[in-house]
């Protein structure tokens, strides 16, 4: 009898305990749901009135992460007007070589200081002979070694070619370890000026023009302004994201029949950066990659 009473008592305690645990669990769950924000990035829409078109247009969307909504010009600028268009849009209609060098850098530049990487490879002559470009866009110029080589080639072939050199002329963090001789004025390294001095020294100021901005911003602008390239060389940032962005943006401003190519396909850094970006891009767009020396060349399949 006592045994049965004990059993009943234990059962009653177990049931009470179960209720308490259930209560605690429900409470905890309710607390958690109330204190965490909704995973949706969108603000809640009022159910009482429909959203306006402006509200809808301004809702966050996937393109915000990439900002690639630039509308490219409907009509390309004629090759003969490319230089003047850049002068007007970027340099207040005045050649940057006018009155060069300015007093504050005079005496700080070397008469000629040219250094590049694979900048004289046969690929340049092969492509220039094949495409006979009127407009070349170089994405990543540094001191102008490859740009000056291309200017030489186009001159030898009697072509009327304008070469636009896109570079922020900042180099990269740490580049001064190897280029200490390039002067700095109040923290501003004179890379743009030394590049321009190099161009002056070989008398190519009429055919080689700096476009001193970050690649991402200016490639989109060229598209908006209607400036397209017959030959575009990509040789700026070598990490995957930079190369991927530059290649995608450059491809949008490549004239039909033009050729996109770039430096570095074999180094360890290229393997994780440039090479992956090039390979992925070619696969997505059904293009063939050809290797010419140290360069990759994207040919229409
Ligand atoms: C390897 S160097 C170019 C060498 C040149 N093509 C040659 O062969 O003589 C790379 C250049 O890309 C530029 N660069 C890198 N990332 C850039 C970016 N996001 N925007 C503009 N320039 C960039 C650097 O300033 C540097 O001058």
From TrEMBL:
InterPro entries: SAM-dependent_MTases_sf. It holds the Pfam family Methyltransf_24. One of its GO terms (biological process) is methylation. Keywords: Membrane, Methyltransferase, Transferase, Transmembrane, Transmembrane helix. The chain crosses the membrane at residues 12-34. GO terms for molecular function: methyltransferase activity. It comes from the Eukaryota. This is S-adenosyl-L-methionine-dependent methyltransferase.
